[in-house]
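WARN no homologs supplied; continuing
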Amino acid sequence: MQFVVSFKMVTFFMSNIHNILLQRQFLTKPEMIEWSITLYDFETRSQLQNKTNNAALSSYDDLRFNADGSVDLYFGPKAPRGFENNWIETISNRGWWVWFRFYSPSEGFFDKSWQLKDFEKVGP
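OK structure emitted
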């Protein structure tokens, strides 16, 4: 088995009054074997220290998947109802950034036929 790790970095400078959504990502087989996303504090460059003591989600977590096999990941001050397992708490007035790690991605990752979508703001 080939072991490859790739990173996608996204930075947010915001007051975190809105939730951020990484929507409808196909992160299950065959697109990606294993993945993780970790939030980092922009000032300290360390993992975001939040009340839930959780700054990461991964393919090993008990996530809620959509009917089509995709997954929605949420980042914000409050968890959307029913998606608590798909959420990482952010801290008001703290900038943050993420590293998305892909382990043993499929060919679609390398030939760029599969692309990680951008984050988008969702309701307050």
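The beta strands are 5-12, 19-25, 32-41, 56-58, 71-76, 87-89, 96-105, 120-122.
OK
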